[in-house]
Amino acid sequence: MFSLIVKNAANKKLNLTDNPNYFTVAEGFNALTSNINTTASAVGHGSVFNSSKLANRNITLQIILRGDIEASRIALYEFFSPLYKLTFFYKNEHRLVHISGYVESFECNPNVSNETANISVICNEPFLLDDYSDIQSLSYIKDYFKFPCSVPAEGVPFGEVNNSNETVIINRGEHEVGCVITLCAKSGISAPIRITNLLSGQYFELNTEMKTDDVIIIKTIIKQKSVHLYRNGNETNLFSKITDSSSWLQLYPGENILAVNSNLSLLNVDISIVPEYIGV
What we know:
The chain has about 280 residues and is mostly beta strands. The protein has two domains: about 5-130, Elongation Factor Tu (Ef-tu), domain 3 (Beta Barrel); about 135-275, Jelly Rolls (Sandwich), CATH 2.60.120.880. The protein has one helix and 23 strands. It has one helix at about 70-80; strands spanning about 5, 15, 20-25, 35-40, 45-55, 55-65, 85-90, 95-110, 115-125, 130, 135-140, 140-145, 160, 165-170, 180-185, 195, 205, 215-220, 225-230, 235, 255-260, 265-275, 275. Strands 1, 2, 3, 6, 7, 8, 9, 10 and 23 form a nine-stranded antiparallel sheet that branches. The chain is globular.
């Protein structure tokens, strides 16, 4: 069994599966096919691979109206307007994901028995996003003390000094994703500041220094790439401080090892990712 909820632009939600007014059949949450771009080979059979890309995801709904048919139909108009973005929340035994899109068509004939709304939604970002982000911290003190707890007579450590500048972050998805890296300076940090993916060899480097209480937020997510410094309540774009050899770090499915070149006694680093899936 699955649960499907739709949210409109006003953040109002409608449950389409656990609802006596609707019987819903949903398609389009399965794995997608890709568009393969090739060029005919001039020196043999077959072709030469150039690239592959996922097309838009098309989610279709067949919703049989029940109860007060007219009221049920009018309620759907509020959520499936062609003018605004909507978001689906899909849950089954293994995954809780969401995806946003726009209504392509809404067909409903009020003059038939078993009145059914046939709805088509185009999702221009085809991956299904996990509802929970994964966060890994690089800090000088590794916390141990959490509530609730029972302390034995010999005592327990409240924390541990972390002498490693490396951390492992797991991408639970089926696709490489960007991340959000938050740098918080506890003291002055000299330039350059570099974060490296030790498995791929790629790194992201900023030719800038940080002052006490500075915060730098780096987003390497495709279509959201940005770097901003927050100092004394002011925001500054640091795009010009990115070194030429830098890469917008992408984390591969599975284990990734990230390292920072700065002293962790002076800098806290949080790395956050949202896993992406090709289907449920």
